[in-house]
Write a structure and sequence with these properties.
This protein has two domains: 2-157, 3-Layer(bba) Sandwich (Glucose Oxidase, domain 1); 167-378, Class I glutamine amidotransferase (GATase) domain (Rossmann fold, 3-Layer(aba) Sandwich), CATH 3.40.50.880. 23% of the residues lie in helices and 34% in strands. The protein contains ten helices and 21 strands. The chain has helices at residues 46-50, 105-111, 122-132, 148-157, 167-170, 198-204, 219-224, 243-255, 264-272, 365-378; strands at 2-3, 11-16, 21-28, 30-40, 58-62, 66-67, 86-89, 91-92, 115-118, 135-141, 176-178, 186-191, 208-213, 229-232, 259-262, 276-293, 299-311, 318-320, 323-331, 337-342, 347-350. It binds glutamine (GLN). The site of glutamine (GLN) has 12 residues, from β17.
Amino acid sequence: MTTSTRGAKAPAVLVLEDGRIFRGRAYGAVGVTFGEAVFSTGMTGYQETLTDPSYHRQVVVMTAPHVGNTGVNDEDPESGRIWVSGYVVRDPARVPSNWRSRRSLDEELDRQGVVGISGIDTRALTRHLRERGAMRVGIFSGDSLPDEGAMLAEVRKAPEMTGADLSAEVATKEPYVVPAIGEKKFTVAAVDLGIKGMTPHRMAERGIEVHVLPATATADDVYAVNPDGVFFSNGPGDPATADGPVAVMQEVLRRRTPLFGICFGNQILGRALGFGTYKLKYGHRGINQPVQDRTTGKVEVTAHNHGFAVDAPLDKVSDTPFGRAEVSHVCLNDDVVEGLQLLDQPAFSVQYHPEAAAGPHDAAYLFDRFVSLMEAERA
Ligand SMILES: NC(=O)CC[C@H](N)C(=O)O
């Protein structure tokens, strides 16, 4: 629920489900919002973060102290709207400055009805989330606020992220096509579980015509486009709920069509192979996470946004219903599984974001790997 505007400087309170409270000022829309409190360590790229559908139902805390400096432009959004359910910053820019800027971030949050809070100690909040783990949170702003006990009771009624099935809420309802740039070489069916705009673009740049399909697409829908490869996107929510996409992916594996998955898509590949998924204590979010590609030994700096992970053994090849599989990538901060690959058929996935929006481009080679799998299939 939001009421608008003028009160951009109204008092605001952030209430965590364990009872910790931070007081600040309204930022963006004035009103009430709930979600899972998570922190992002990205120093840049706030527009891409805000519009990434994987952040649906999450209240994002920025560890970078000064946010909004470059304003809001019309080029950087990763989808048609802001998806975060709330936004938490230390010190918003008072005067944005950039040649592409059209309006301030404060105005844009207000325009889209996104409730935020500024002027709180985001370092203390981040340390709290790191020690206690991601948890539910509420932001309440306005001139007359409920008492603390009432706000806490509301936060504790909000839905949890564990068990949340959210892809269909954010994905396209209708299929659409992103044409290949230049000569068309391949057709890919991309199951949209919350896809970011840059992902089909990275494929289109490589001569792929991308047929983006709704989250509810069946295997028949996938094969109706006569694909050379199949892609499963990133997306919000708990992968343990994604039974539909897991069944579709198992059919793709049965048919041995080249397969690539990103983030939620990696968790779905994990499940399709028979591995479990689990919730990380506070997740990985930011654009500076070190990952090792174990197939080459190279280390890359990468963009992350995940709160769940695949539970697969790091030190051995696993036998799965689709042949041998191994962990191809691992996060060097905490040994979390960051990629999977099959050894007996053309299928792989990563838990992080090679589309790099925002983020470093170190992992762009993964799109080339997908192209190589499709080329090898054709040869
Ligand atoms: N970016 C994503 O695809 C996130 C996947 C999943 N929702 C998670 O939090 O782990």
